[in-house]
Write a structure and sequence with these properties.
heterodimer; A: Four Helix Bundle (Hemerythrin (Met), subunit A); about 75% helix; extended; B: mainly alpha; three-stranded antiparallel β-sheet; two-stranded antiparallel ribbon; 14 helices; 9 strands
């Protein structure tokens, strides 16, 4: 019991980490778009769990709020609408199997070389514990506001483009 | 360490017990209140008979909630051939779990110091103190929105996987409606966050112990407009009448959960009723001074004239817990009052109401708040 309590954080970290990895693998392996989306959702939530475990609860909240509550909701919405029209997932393998596998192997090799002992870059100094939402908000609005606003311009452009596409598809130019 | 574990296990048990009881009782309150409002008698048939006697406990039909629960557990779990079996099975839980999780960050009382309650506890707990809340996070309100966004996915999965066109239409409606109103919901609260300067829910409640003139410094006094918008958007988010288009029974049978039966259907219903309590708890916490009576704080009362009334720790804890439950229950009842008073919108009206009425109003409220806060601080 005491051992369990003393190592609770490590055990939870292991559980969340393995679950997040398993979810990530499932995203790649599953053929059905909705199931891949569900696996991605579980990965996002477990990643949020890891952030929460590190004591940055607001990052965990943002992780779930933005990736699950916004991005994945729209993905599920789109799959729900379009899924039956595209039966491509019923085939066992994609025609791009071999190029895809080659790229995956290359990526894996690069990652392993990067992480291999001796070649790993020095770890960044661990930030002081209890990095609070207030500090984050101050830094965000003082240093990064321009980047943030530029992103929103990009999103606005995307929205206008989407509307334009719909109007062209409908043949409605007025 | 063990003490912490015991206290938090108790908190979690309390939270689950409260939510389940609210879920069960509200199913009865909804019917009984409808009956009272329309001058009928209402649910009054279910009773418990004390064994070996003829004494029947009717208690105004309060056991109807229990009868419903038992019925749903024992009914045949008819399973249609779903389009996607896995999504079909997982969907009720994706709807139900986040609703419960939201309660983890809501404070249901002030600070508990077990050592001050009784001498027997003092030896074991010492001077440890615990905020009466399962998880006190500096990002409390953000967590509420994070979990709130997850149940949309459950509704959409349920409708999509059922391979029924009514379900799919219901899921479509649920998706668009919940996404729209979630935006309004968040926007209405920004003004409040600006005034309190924090998203930590315990901190928000503590700041409401103060006064503005003679009035208690409750959120509803600062932001009456936002409070109204918040309640309306929250009811829409919960998909209740007048916003129950995703499950409009005269058009879509039962919308996205048409193909669910027995307890799986019960989970959807139960999630809806528990969410009534969650909305009430959130509204209490943000706008109605949380677990405190007006002018009350963890040490007793500070009346507007500057008079202090001290209270013992035990009395404060009991008052806070009871006051919180009472406020939540009254707000639940108010939501049910709305449900039986207003007719259902048409679907285009629901979305128009969100985007062309509530969204601009929430924005206007935010802009006015920003200007006022800026002017007062300058």
């Amino acid at each position: 019991m005491t051992w369990l309590l003393a190592n609770l954080e490590t055990i939870l970290l292991a559980v969340f980490g393995v679950s997040a990895l398993a979810g990530g693998v499932l995203v790649v392996v599953l053929r059905q778009p909705m199931r891949a989306a569900m696996a991605l959702i579980s990965t996002m939530i477990f990643l949020g769990g890891i952030y929460g475990l590190l004591g940055v609860h607001f990052i965990a909240a943002f992780q779930v709020l933005i990736y699950v509550g916004a991005v994945m909701v729209f993905m599920v919405y789109v799959i729900m609408l379009l899924d039956p029209r595209d039966p491509a997932f019923r085939r066992r393998f994609s025609p791009l199997l071999f190029p895809g596998a080659a790229v995956a192997l290359g990526l894996a090799a690069t990652l392993i070389r990067g992480v291999a002992p001796g070649t790993a870059p020095a770890a960044a100094p661990a930030p002081a514990r209890g990095f609070s939402l207030a500090e984050f908000a101050t830094a965000f609005l003082n240093q990064y506001w321009l980047h943030f606003e530029l992103t929103s311009v990009l999103l606005l452009a995307a929205v206008i483009a989407a509307i334009a596409v719909i109007r062209v598809a409908r043949g409605d130019h007025g | 360490m063990i003490q912490d574990l015991v206290v938090y296990a108790l908190y979690i048990a309390y939270a689950i017990a409260v939510l389940m009881t609210f879920g069960l009782v509200l199913t009865w309150v909804e019917r009984k209140q409808a009956a009272v409002m329309s001058d009928r008698i209402g649910a009054n048939r279910a009773y418990l008979r004390i064994p070996f006697t003829q004494v029947k406990l009717v208690w105004w039909g309060l056991f109807h909630g229990m009868a419903d629960g038992i019925k749903m557990l024992l009914k045949e779990d008819f399973r249609p051939k779903p389009y996607d079996w896995y999504a079909y099975m997982v969907a009720p839980w994706v709807v139900f779990t986040p609703v419960l999780l939201v309660f983890a960050v809501i404070p249901f009382g002030g600070t508990l110091v077990p050592g001050q309650l009784s001498p027997a506890l003092a030896g074991w707990f010492g001077e440890r103190s615990y905020p009466m809340q399962i998880a006190r996070l500096d990002a409390g309100l953000l967590m509420v929105f994070a979990f709130g966004g997850v149940s949309v996915i459950g509704a959409m999965l349920a409708g999509w996987s059922s391979s029924n066109k009514f379900s799919l239409l219901g899921a479509l409606r649920a998706g668009s409606q919940m996404i729209s109103y979630e935006l309004v919901l968040a926007l209405t609260l920004l003004g409040l966050i600006l005034i309190y300067g924090t998203v930590d829910l315990t901190d928000i409640v503590r700041q409401q112990s103060g006064t503005i003139g003679a009035l208690p410094a409750w959120g509803i006094v600062y932001q009456p407009f936002a409070a109204t918008l918040f309640l309306a958007a929250a009811i829409a988010e919960n998909k209740r009448i007048p916003f129950d288009l995703p499950e409009a029974e005269s058009e879509l049978i039962s919308g996205y959960f048409t193909e669910y039966s027995a307890m799986k259907m019960g989970l959807f219903m139960f999630a809806e009723f528990i969410e009534i309590a969650i909305i009430a708890a959130l509204f209490t916490t943000l706008f109605l001074g949380g677990y405190n009576l007006p002018y009350m704080h963890d040490g007793g009362f500070t009346l507007p004239g500057g008079r202090e009334i001290a209270m013992s720790h035990g009395a404060v804890v009991v008052t806070q817990v009871v006051v919180f439950l009472a406020k939540v229950f009254l707000l639940c009842s108010f939501q049910i009052l709305i449900r039986w008073s207003l007719p259902r919108f048409r679907y285009d009206q629901v979305l128009k109401f969100a985007w062309k009425f509530m969204f601009p109003l929430a924005l206007a409220n935010l802009i006015v708040t920003v200007i006022v806060v800026w002017a007062l601080r300058a």
